[in-house]
Amino acid sequence: PNVEANIASLRQKLQIAPAQEAQFSAVANVMRENARAGASAPHQPTANATAVDDLRAEIQYDEVELAGLKRLLPALEALYSTLSPAQRKTADMVFRQGPGG
Predict the structure, then answer these.
(1) What is the pTM of this model?
(2) Where are the domains of the chain?
(3) CA 30 to CA 13: how far, in whole Å?
(4) How far apart are CA 70 and CA 40, in angstroms?
(5) pLDDT tens digits, residue range 27-39?
């Protein structure tokens, strides 16, 4: 998925108000950073990889993903604190599916 499309979708779904722009921008920046980090992580082991190689690659990818979630949490907490009850309900549904919606 394209990170910019995910950010645009999130902005539209949450109906970000001008007063929430700084907090939303922080979330968007972390999403971009996480996309760059994820792109550099090995997704697929080589064709002649062993079961051990596969597991190592999976662990490395999961560690990158976990680090990204940890980076996203404080930015999301700051944005969430500015959201209206209706926006929070939408955010709750969107983030159950993942930040890209």
Answers:
(1) 0.85
(2) 3-97
(3) 18
(4) 18
(5) 999 999 999 988 8
